[in-house]
Amino acid sequence: MRIALFGTHKVGKTTLAEELLEKLPEYTLEVEPYYQLESSGHEFLEEPTAEDFVEQFNYSARLISQSGEDVIFDRCVLDILAYLHILDPKKNIQSLFEKTITVLAEIDILVFVPIEEPDLIHCQKSDLPKLRSQVNDLLLDWIDDLGIQVIEVHGTPSSRCNQILAKLKS
Question: What is the pLDDT of residues 4-32, one digit of tens each?
Fold first, then answer.
């Protein structure tokens, strides 16, 4: 199965991915495209740009399309596209949106990790809390508008992991 975790930054996706990997040792983990690109020499600016997210989007789409089975993706095209849209709302993203729908069809389980109330992870000013909130709200809108089938997880990392494992068993 291909499992994609998505949500804004600082919600616990990586922690959840690592916990899932402990419970599913036969799976491989694809870390965020940002980190994969960075480790291969791509240099990102201090402040995120729309171009950075286009690069990450294309990388993520290739990762998903070229992956085998039993993979956990820490971030996917949907949340990357949300960042791009928030950062540059005038940019025409129609073709990227269509590609997103195609790529999401290759995912078996989409897991949305939202900002919780109360917020479980303290967000510093340097963590761009406004951007974080805007991306979270846009993802909620897109999930509703598009009728995307997702598991929305809540609670502690263990609880979130158990919610996904229960879905895998069903």
Answer: 999 999 899 999 999 999 999 999 999 99
Give the tokens for residue 70: 């039993």
In tens, the pLDDT along 131-158 reads 899 999 999 999 988 888 999 999 999 9
Among 158, 50, 154, residue whose Cα is nearest residue 112: 154
Give the per-residue pLDDT at 118: 59
